[in-house]
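cache lookup: miss for this entity combination. No prior model stored, computing from scratch. Input as submitted by user K.M.:
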Amino acid sequence: MTGAARLVLDGVAKRYGRAVVLDDVSLEVESGEIVVVCGPSGGGKTVLLRLIAGTEQPDQGDIRIDGKSMLGLGAEQRDVGMAFQNFALYPHLTAYQNIASPLEARGLATAEIKQRVDKVAALLRIGHVLGHTPRELSNGQKQRTSLARALVRGPGTLLLDDPLRNVDAKLRYEMRLELPRLLASFGSAVIYVTQDYREAMALGRRIAVLRQGRFEQVGAPETVYGEPANLEIARLFGDPTINLYPCRPDGEAVELLGERVPLAPGMAQLAGREVMLGIRAEDIEVATEPMPGSVAAELDAVTPLNVRAVLYLRSRDGKELLATVPEDDALRFGRGHRPVWAKLAPDRFLAFDPATGARL
Amino acid sequence: MAGLALDQLSKIYRSRGKQPVLAVDRVDLAAGEGEIVGLLGSSGCGKTSTLRMIAGFEDVSSGTIRVGDKAIQALPPKDRGVAMAFEGYALYPPLTIRDNIGFALLRERRSREEVARRVGEIAGLLEIGDILDRYPPTISAGQQQRTSLARALVRRAAISLLDEPMSQLEPQLRAILRARIKDYLIEHRMTTVFVTHDQTEAIALADRIAVMEQGVLQQYAPPAELKEQPANLFVASFIGEPPMNIVDARLAPGTEGGGLIATSPDGLTAFKVPLAPALTARLGRPDIGYKLGIRPHRALVGDPLGLPATVVSNQWLGDQAHLALDLGGCFLVVVAHRRIDASIGGTVPVRLPPGAMHLFDAASGRALLHGLEAQEAAAA
């Protein structure tokens, strides 16, 4: 299976009436690379996929695959495969016939088709259900069949529209962990769309954050999480949502949560201006005894969150603070409603401009 | 406030020309005063029928429901001392959000000041304080759901019943609202039963969770106990995210030194778990199939005492690492609270502490042992 394609979006814009859905969107995807497009619903993700697939045409800009402009070409003339969250399988065909359909449309020989379908089915571990119709398949098997159909002809560009949304937790984690290796073996340039920031971080070599029709940040997962371009991206990436406090630092410290908290040297430039200070939940250490440089608080609830637990704290000045600890460490806090001390990590604070949201 | 007790509660749906459906099958369940109980299961498991029987919107086929020491199953809904938040919200369209929330308090003839204070408090807690003068059709689904929740919580009824109370919550509000709601329920010692299909939500809120499947209560226990001592394979694989790793296993014959042999999906030996001879003997015959379970965060990746495994995937999610490992043909998901330095295709040691392993009977799914080490010591 070949198809060393490279996808280029160059200043793409799309309007419906007066509503600008996509505005000057540019991105390059290498073959073998997964770029995850992540953002809230209504941000333009689905329209972007339609433009690349060729079911809609952009108002401005160019879309190139392997250096060739796709403008004016229909979906059937583009080397693009697609899989959807709702599977979109043909209900009257078997899994085998579904997977084989793009090859049959191209008039391949029966033996060649069988060889290709068997190979992709083996990779996706659905070889034993190829004779079943979609009605007889589990959601996980449907999703794998849908993926197999998208992959079977080795498309240069592969579009995956939230494909793990409707599968159970076990399969979702298995697929999250297996997909990068599987997709790499096909060498396609992959655009993967999701609203789930953890899925984006797990799968993307790069993440493109699409909000209000624009890529507000394109970067490696660690960069988007650790150095978000703006406040909204910081809020989208992180569960619990990042803690935010408006404040005005002086040279070396800031009045925060009823205490004077020393700042890291790098924040000295913020002295005297209004900032929105962001503190990630996992950067807060919580103890049942005072620690040097810690903030006194009341622990009001403990809500476990998968392998971690969220601690809900209220400071002396009535502000809320969410901290997380490994779940096993949370047992010592019981049901909460007790005094605790929270140690913040000033060198990990994020500061944003309260007016524009830009990170400072 | 009072406790709630269900005793052998059953629900059979009968319709003409069809087989009767046993939706709830002799469920026993008790919630202490001020306790938060989650009914958890997938659709059709009987959790919503159970909630609706407590509320009085469904007849009880058999069994009893008591609040305090009073049987209530024959009383009309309004006399049961329960407040319910419906999954479909059921807001009054001609009333403002403020009046929707305060409706029951006004009907109880509470003073205007008290109603205003309590409505303001719960609305602030649920982040709907700025839409109190609007009407239900003009607000988002998420806001409607929070209004419905506010209307139930503001009453501080003897029993609060919440049907999928947070399914529509905006992701950025989820953690903080779960925390505030739990704090509110504890603060006011509210006996609460909520229904959810989302195990993460159940674990976040509940003191105890009733896991249901096909009308049958599978296990009723605190979240930590469901994780550490699941009663069967169903509970073990339903609770926890990422889910528990579960692999096939069999007993090694005495001639091979006993212990357990974990096998890959291809039936090959993946790894061995040594057991004390007394435990091997107690478990039974080598021809019985077992399932061996270990939770992703209990497998210790990078531990020098571990077995060599191939790295399939290594993903850092900001506050935790998720890895997929191939250990002798078994696919293992491992979670760590720090970054793991391991490149894909390389080898990394992973230790599976026997104390963190769960053993199930493969045929019945029943749990046999939790923590093989502890059993080993006890058997010696």
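stored under new cache key. Residues 1-5 of chain A have pLDDT under 50 and may be disordered.
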